[in-house]
Amino acid sequence: MKAIVQERFGPPETLRSADVDRPEIRATEVLVRVRAAALNPYDWHMLRGDPYVARLVGGVGLTRPKYPVAGIDAAGEVVAVGAEVRELRPGDEVLGFCPGAFAEYARTTADLLVPKPSALTFEEAAAVPMGAVTALRGIRTVGRVRAGQRVLINGAAGGVGTFAVQIAAASDAEVTGVCSGRNADLVRSLGAVHVVDYGREDFTDRRGQYDVILDNVGNRPLSRLRGALTPTGVLVANGGGSPGHVFGAMGSMLRLSAVNAVVRQRLRPILPSAPAGPTHEDLLAVAALIEAGQLRPVVDRAYRLEDTAEGVRHVEEGHARGKAVVRVA
What we know:
By secondary structure, the chain is α/β, with parallel strands linked by helices. The protein has helices spanning 41-48, 53-57, 122-126, 129-142, 161-170, 184-189, 222-228, 248-260, 279-291, 308-316, and strands at 2-5, 16-19, 29-39, 73-81, 93-97, 105-109, 113-115, 150-154, 174-179, 194-197, 210-215, 229-237, 266-269, 299-304, 323-327.
């Protein structure tokens, strides 16, 4: 099969197209014919082995990538199931977490897949797993957003932010989205009542306004973020830290936890979105929101499989509007 492989840590240019063996599944696994795969910041972090500490404790690989075929988010069709799999059968259309998603076929476990909502194309469905699950956890699981609360989402036009705005709006919160001026109309269309153009205003100048802040960018000091919260508000941190730093976002999370121990406000990181954690329940929840018409993916652009490196570069530069995807078949 055709696949995009990474044989060493480095920039997107280290990715290359290759012919590799089709994965063989075990009794508890499922083989998926990948129709589309999403591009995530997760992918370029894995490609570069960044932060460096992840090579020691994160299962990424120490001197070279542990998993030679890149990608994690996918949508496609089940072509084979292991002897112990009962939930799925060949022909089912699915979306979910498939390590090695930048390929014509990928194997995974049944608990990391859910049925594809019929209203979505494969490209739209591929955009869902990591972005929507992370947003769901940020808004509902960690932020515990309630009706009437004032919620600010920094990075509202990005892969997680576009989902987070919709999920917060579906919770009847008063949503403020922070984005560039060119994305203001998009963010409003997703349910934001207010939009802050970061090119014109620093949202942290708004002292004590927000019950919950979901920070997807990590470009403001913690003290400034806390100042924009109510005295008992919640800061939900998704990422942060500088690329190439030894600890990266992990260092930011450690600082967050240290400050959280001595303040009234709740300062929380989002738990890992993939592949660790209770992802099946979260995937079912976001699929239900899609079926109910309360959530839709925003696809920025689609790349051919052989142009995956170009897509990773686009996402790494931070310019994606919603999600970028790879069209596999």
